[in-house]
Amino acid sequence: MARSRTASSRRRRAAALTSVAALTIGGTLLAELPAQGADKPRGHDVSSHQKNVNWQKAKNKGARFVYVKATESTNYRSPYFSRQYKGARNAGIVRGAYHFALPQKSSGKAQASYFVRNGGAWRRDGWTLPPALDIEYNPYGKGKHPCYGLRKSTLVSWISSFSNEIVRSTGRRPVIYTNARWWKQCTGNSRAFAANHALWLARYDERAGSLPAGWTYWTFWQYADSGRLPGDQNLFNGSMAQLKRFAKG
C-alpha cells in the first residue's frame, strides 16, 4: 500500500509478494497490466508519497477510481489527503479513503473513530467508495513481529471492532485490504469477514491467485506498486457501472 512513511517499509512489503510480469498486447507495452485485468476498470491508491497528483492526467491515462490514504493509528493524518481526495473527485474519478492499521497501538474502535473524523466518512453519492482498512505486515518491525506481537484471536477481534465502529458511523462495512499470506499467518485464516466485507487483495503477479480464507472473489486487486498511474496499481472486479453501484451502496 502507498503509505506515508519510509520507502524501505514499502520494499519489505513488496518482498513478501511476487513480481508482476510485463505484458505486450497488440504491440503496446502494458507493463503493469495483469492477464486477468484487460477488461476491468483501472485504479490506483496514493498517499503523501505521491504529493500533488495531476488528476486530469491520471484520468486521461485510465484512472477510474482511487483510494487515498487518510490516517494511520490515531495520531497521523496525511497532509495531502484533502487535496488528493477532492482533486480526484473534481477530475471525475470515483474515490475513497483508507486507514493504515497499527493494531498494537490502540483499539480497533479508537482507530476507526479517528479515521471517520479525519476523512473516512462515506456518502451515498456514487462517487465515494466505502472506507477501507489496510491491515498487513508490520512495516515498522524491522522484519520482526509481522503480526504486531498480537495473537491471532486478538487481531480478529481488533478487525471486528474496527468494522463495527465503521458501520455504526457510516452505514457501510469497510473494504479489507490484505494479502493471503499475512491473513493466514496473523488471523489463522479467519473466515469471519468474507460474508459482508469486500476484499481488496494485495498480490503482485499476473493472476490474483489464492484468496484469504472465506472469500471466493476479490473486489479490488492491487497488482503492482508502480505503473502508468501514480502510486500502486489496482483493478476493480466488474464493469464501470458496477463500480458506481458499489460506491453508492
Structural write-up:
By secondary structure, the chain is α/β, with parallel strands linked by helices. The protein has helices at residues 7-15, 55-60, 81-90, 108-117, 152-170, 180-187, 240-248; strands at residues 23-25, 28-30, 42-46, 63-72, 76-77, 94-100, 132-134, 175-178, 199-202, 220-224, 232-236. Strand 10 and strand 11 (232-236) form a beta hairpin. The model is unreliable at 2-32 (pLDDT under 50).
In short:
It is built from seven helices and eleven strands.
Descriptors:
249 residues, alpha/beta, eight-stranded mixed β-barrel, two-stranded antiparallel sheet, globular, disordered N terminus
Main β-sheet, spatial strand arrangement: 3-4-6-7-8-9-10-11
* Radius of gyration, taken over Cα atoms and rounded to an integer in Å: 17 Å
Largest sheet: 8 strands, mixed, barrel
According to DSSP, the number of beta strands is 11
Name the average pLDDT.
89
List the SSEs and their pairings.
Blueprint: H1 7-15, E1 23-25, E2 28-30, E3 42-46, H2 55-60, E4 63-72, E5 76-77, H3 81-90, E6 94-100, H4 108-117, E7 132-134, H5 152-170, E8 175-178, H6 180-187, E9 199-202, E10 220-224, E11 232-236, H7 240-248
Parallel strand pairs: 3-4, 4-6, 6-7, 7-8, 8-9, 9-10
Antiparallel strand pairs: 1-2, 3-11, 4-5, 10-11
